[in-house]
Design goal:
- The chain has 333 residues and is of the alpha/beta class.
- The chain folds into 2 domains: 179 residues, Thiolase/Chalcone synthase (Peroxisomal Thiolase, Chain A, domain 1), CATH 3.40.47.10; 149 residues, 3-Layer(aba) Sandwich (Peroxisomal Thiolase, Chain A, domain 1).
- The chain is built from 11 helices and 13 strands.
- The longest helix has 23 residues.
- The protein is globular.
- Bound molecules: oxa(dethia)-CoA.
- The site of oxa(dethia)-CoA has 21 residues, from α2, α6 and α8.
């Protein structure tokens, strides 16, 4: 349906929304079920509590709730959405795409829909992909969603992972923006050689589900925390510096930094390397843990809705995760 435009159109975020399940699980709760301590979890990760979904809810349920808020925030109707992109590590099913389930439920009758897999960087990838369709004039309203039901793929006996993750979703409507505003620069990165450090081994075509894979807990998240930690600090700081340079935005001109919410120590170390003061760093990892693809859009939605992020602000966002992948973008709000 699209014709090639003479000039690219600026793409920005016109609406945001988040959904968190009500059920709060605290560190004290986890102390009762696994060999850990509140002190260890807070000092090593900064996480105090996380939201955990009921057994009856799946990622599309979260995605629909977050998308509904983002669509309302953008002041449009569901049927005006042209494309739905869902970034998730926990699709409702292997197929069909969770995005198609969302497309139907939000009434986006004319929209295309697909899922995108880029580990915890998924929302950043989805945002950049969405902006391509808007910038070329192909589409006006593209929905980028990060939605996770990680509690369903966690081994609740594995203290190395079960204390870290939480459930939730965040969504953004990407639309044409005023020239000079919206997404100023972005870059997507990957290094498949590090894929072994964070994965869910079974259930795909390499290792289909068998009684043995279930008995060996191969349908759960497996992670080498230290390797991911080292990669995350380096990748976040370097990619942030690179996109700021591409955009011609000085570190001192950044109003808010929204990094992936995996660990407060990663966030603080990356901010320190960049020379960003604490008051410019937005974080909610203490309340929600690591919600993977949902973490950045949840922080964004909370900061926009509380009035913290204002028109004209420069926002720096960086995601990282399984793949390995990482991705950074600078926006003028
Ligand atoms: O979204 C992207 C994916 N994930 C990440 O970004 C995670 C990145 N990594 C991290 O955030 C950190 O590496 C962790 C929070 C996962 C771990 O912190 P750490 O300071 O790197 O600890 P460690 O893995 O080096 O473990 C230190 C010790 C170990 O004991 P030993 O071997 O030294 O005796 C662990 O067995 O802490 C032990 N440990 C725990 N102790 C109490 C690991 N998990 C726990 C726990 N409670 N929950």
């Amino acid at each position: 349906m699209a014709t090639l435009p003479k000039e690219l159109i600026s793409a920005g975020i016109a609406g945001v929304g988040a959904y968190l399940p009500n059920n709060i699980v605290t560190n004290e709760d986890l102390e009762k079920t696994v060999d850990t301590s509140t002190e260890w979890i807070i000092s090593r990760s900064g996480i105090r509590e996380r939201r955990i979904a009921p057994a009856t809810m799946a990622s599309s349920d979260f995605a629909v709730a977050a998308a509904g808020k983002a669509i309302a925030d953008a002041g449009i109707a569901g049927e005006e959405i042209d494309l739905v992109i869902v970034a998730t590590n926990t699709p409702d099913m292997v197929f069909p795409a969770t995005a198609c389930l969302v497309q139907e439920r939000i009434g986006a009758k004319k929209a295309g829909a697909f899922d995108l897999a880029a580990g915890c960087s998924g929302f950043m990838y989805a945002l950049v992909v969405a902006s391509q369709f808007v910038s070329t004039g192909s589409y006006k309203n593209v929905l980028a969603i990060g939605a996770e039901n990680l509690s369903k793929i966690i081994d609740w006996q594995d203290r190395k992972t079960c204390v870290l993750f939480g459930d939730g979703a965040g969504a953004a409507v990407v639309r044409p923006a005023e020239p000079g505003s919206g997404i100023l620069a972005y870059k997507l990165y990957a290094d498949g050689s590090g894929g072994k450090h964070l994965n869910l081994p079974a259930g795909g075509s390499r290792m289909p589900a068998t009684h043995e894979t279930v008995d060996n807990k191969l349908h759960y998240i497996h992670m080498s925390g230290r390797d991911i930690f080292r990669f995350a600090v380096r990748a976040t700081a370097r990619s942030a510096a690179e996109v700021l340079d591409m955009a011609g935005v000085k570190v001192s001109d950044v109003d808010y930094f929204i990094p992936h919410q995996a660990n407060v120590r990663i966030i603080e170390a990356a901010a320190k390397r960049l020379g960003l003061p604490a008051e410019k760093v937005l974080s909610n990892v203490d309340r929600y843990g690591n919600t993977s693809t949902a973490s950045i859009p949840i922080v964004l939605a909370e900061a926009v809705q509380s009035g913290r992020i204002k028109k004209g602000n420069h926002i720096l966002m960086v995601g990282f995760g399984a793949g390995l992948t990482w991705a950074a973008a600078v926006l003028k709000w």
